[in-house]
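Q: Given only this backbone (262 positions), what sequence would you predict?
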């Protein structure tokens, strides 16, 4: 099924929304205009890197030709925004009338509802055909790493802060957990998709995010602790970037053929 104009417009709105926080990659002080909690320049740029993944996903979905190409991104958008809303609710009593995150609450209530409606309206369109994805081991390994990290950040934020390679407020750790768990979900969905057109957006957007995180980490290298945590941090992000770049460059023939005939 062809990608519709109204769906492209929805992704345009997502691009604008994601870039409102993504701009903190350049101007970290701007994070206070959107994120309900304070963040150091390093944390602000790390958050922005995660949002850039959403911005790139939505931008690529705008130019995608078929609904199959945007399905994973739609699910991720709904999961991230809905997850952040649920994470925020228990903390509403911590805000004053002046600091209450009205825009955050409004947008992250509307977004998952809209995504849910879109997924319901598009149900049964471009169904996933049977077949094996040769990139499934990569996607599942990626998903497993993010799932473990996301769960620790979510349920044991104080422990995660001790293991983190730089100073991490527990609430920001839980914010990161929503993104990590969503990336894990995306990896599982990508592993089940045998067509190239169903996974290329996920590959490209995650590669950009991985590279941005590496760049931010290098820029703020003086903020990192010395020791194993830092080495593991750089090693995992670099390994992910190399693996995703190789997958995009090689474009497995099996996936390309399925995408061409589906």
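A: Predicted residues:
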């Amino acid at each position: 099924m062809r990608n519709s104009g109204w769906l492209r417009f929805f992704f345009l709105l997502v691009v604008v929304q994601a870039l409102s926080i993504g701009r903190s990659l350049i101007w970290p002080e701007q994070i206070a205009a959107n994120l309900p909690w304070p963040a150091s320049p390093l944390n602000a740029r790390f958050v922005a890197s995660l949002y850039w993944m959403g911005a790139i996903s939505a931008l690529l979905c705008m130019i995608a030709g078929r609904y199959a190409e945007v399905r994973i991104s739609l699910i991720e958008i709904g999961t991230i925004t809905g997850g952040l809303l649920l994470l925020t609710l228990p903390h509403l009593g911590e805000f004053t009338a002046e600091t209450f995150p009205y825009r955050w609450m409004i947008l992250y209530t509307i977004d998952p509802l809209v995504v849910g409606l879109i997924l319901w309206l598009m149900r049964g369109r471009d169904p996933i055909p049977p077949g094996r994805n040769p990139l499934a081991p990569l996607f599942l390994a990626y998903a497993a790493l993010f799932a473990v990290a996301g769960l620790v950040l979510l349920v044991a934020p104080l422990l995660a802060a001790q293991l983190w390679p730089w100073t991490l407020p527990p609430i920001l750790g839980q914010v990161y957990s929503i993104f990590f768990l969503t990336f894990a979900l995306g990896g599982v969905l990508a592993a089940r998709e045998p067509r190239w057109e169903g996974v290329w957006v996920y590959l490209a957007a995650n590669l950009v995010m991985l590279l941005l995180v590496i760049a931010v980490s290098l820029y703020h290298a003086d903020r990192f602790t010395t020791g194993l945590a830092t080495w593991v941090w750089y090693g995992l992000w670099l390994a992910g970037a190399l693996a995703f770049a190789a997958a995009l460059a090689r474009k497995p023939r099996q996936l390309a053929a399925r995408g061409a005939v589906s």
